[in-house]
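Give me structure tokens for this 95-residue protein.
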Amino acid sequence: MPVKPDSIARRKRKRRPKAMDLRTLSKVLTEAIVALEDHLEAITKPEKVDGEELRKTAHALATVSGSYVKTLEQSDLSARLEELEARFAPIAKRK
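Here you go.
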């Protein structure tokens, strides 16, 4: 039975997650990093280590960590911008 194009679009809309603010994204990434670290520790304990799983887990950990660093930088820049806007708002109102 062929799939109708409108039903594909409807499924994609349902799967699309809601946008997160930087604080929520940071929390989600932190949880992912902790879970990946736990998994990495668990797979390296047995005598026989699966190299492929170890490689995939290490790659995922590096990717998530990179995203986390970018999120922290954005969060820091956002906080600094809000501080500057608050500081100079009275000056902007005078003009």
